[in-house]
Amino acid sequence: MTYRFDRDELVSLTGWLARIAADLDDFLYGASQALARTHRWSNAVQGLGPVAMGCAERAEDLARRAMFLDAIHGNRWSSAWDRRSELHALWQQIETFPGSDNDPRLDAMLRRSVDRERAWLTALESLSPAQVASVAAALPTEIGLRLAWTDPGAVSSTDGLPLSWRAVATRRLMAIEVDRLRAELSPGNGLQTPDLNRLRLLEGWLRSERTFVWFDPSGDGQIVEVVGDLEVATGIGVFVPGIGSELATFEAVASHARALVSAARSMDQDIAVVAWLGYDAPAVGWNLEPLLGDQAEAGSPKLVSFVDGLTAQRPHVPLTVIAHSYGSVLAAWAAAYDHLAADRLVIVGSPNVAVDHVGGLVVPEPGAVFVGEAPSDPVTAIGEFTDGWRDDWSGLGHGYDPGVCDWGAKVFEVQNVGLIDAHVAYTSGASAETIVNIMTGDPENVPDRCG
């Protein structure tokens, strides 16, 4: 049998679905408001007849399908949907009916809804961060908050989703970890000191108003925090830390982001800096991890994905990756081999990078790469001593010193501080002001020590 599809009819149907996406906000908002109170669709839904419940399910499903179409094809239809009042009337029934929580039909509906949402999140994993951002832009905030409750792990870890959704999901994950640690606190079964410290750390963060947008409690732990207001920032930074960075030492990582935001405010600039501990950093101590590039290579795709998602949400704001210590090994690898979508790259306190010239980095232009090395920094001194050395067989060594003029980057002056503080002082004083100028100003005007 041959089927003939009328193109105009298909276009009209697509437009009808898109108009549903545009005009169902009130319905979805009401449902999500109930969810915010009970973490369920509504206690009242169970009292409706099967036909009304089926209509609610179909409306929800049509809305999601339409939002995908709208994100893919663009919102080209603006006329009002002539059956909108029917959905309003339906929601009035749902909202006003007093019911209880014990109805198998409601439970079945909720289970099917959760299954659909998890399938939706699984489908997002096959998209690029930019595509995820496009689809998510068509969804009301209330749907994102519901997804954050349905599967906080997926929402927290999916690059491209709005950071406001990820922040809700991340706090949920942190609360789950706190509950797990508290459950182990029982008579005769006390927590070990590291776990007790983690419990106290997470409890303090949950009491704060800080914005965490990714959390992984496994191993040494990974976490990402946004410092400053991304919505008004004229420059965005992603700070990538080095060895010894883990959940237990994250306050030291976040202090660099806070110092840059504070420096910008003193300069009447609005910036936001992400403290990105999204990889397994080498441990401090007697081990070979800091001398190997394995953890930088493993973390590189995660940094690239996060930056892609951030760029998709604020495409017109310059984004600067600020890579410190071993973090510069990771960031340079990402720029050289994994297409890091940063407008500018700042390398400070580097123990060397994998490419022998700035031209080996994929950045908008060679002038977009800046290097700072404190005169008394022992890490950069080791980098100078081992310049050009990396053993392909053992993997030891990081390659080339980006702070020498022949490497080709812009090398800016760094304040000279004592030996103890030299490696961690790049986000303070004049050095911080230089980085802020790179983030918000004209990079061409940053003084180049190499001329």
SSE inventory with pairings:
Blueprint: H1 7-23, H2 25-38, H3 50-73, H4 84-96, H5 104-124, H6 129-137, H7 141-150, H8 152-157, H9 163-183, H10 193-207, E1 211-216, E2 222-227, E3 235-240, H11 250-266, E4 271-277, H12 294-313, E5 319-324, H13 326-337, E6 344-348, E7 369-372, H14 378-385, E8 410-412, H15 429-440
Parallel strand pairs: 3-4, 3-5, 5-6, 6-7, 7-8
Antiparallel strand pairs: 1-2, 2-4
Helix pairs in contact: 1-3, 2-4, 2-7, 3-6, 6-12, 7-9, 9-10, 11-15, 12-13
The shape is: globular
Helix fraction bin: 40-55%
CATH H-tier superfamily of the largest domain:
Alpha/Beta hydrolase fold, catalytic domain
Order of helices and strands: HHHHHHHHHHEEEHEHEHEEHEH
Q: Which strands sit side by side, in order, in the main sheet?
A: 1-2-4-3-5-6-7-8
Radius of gyration: 26 Å
Q: Structurally, how many domains make up the residues?
A: 3
Under CATH at level 1, the class of the largest domain stands as Alpha Beta
Beta-strand proportion? 5-15%
Corresponding CATH architecture of the largest domain: 3-Layer(aba) Sandwich
**CATH topology heading of the largest domain:** Rossmann fold
Number of helical elements: 15
- Beta strand count: 8
Average pLDDT value? 77
- Specify the biggest β-sheet: 8 strands, mixed
Report the structural category.
alpha/beta
**Uncertain runs with pLDDT below 50, 5 residues or more?**
1-6, 34-49, 69-88, 90-101
For the terminal residues, how far apart are their CA atoms? 75 Å
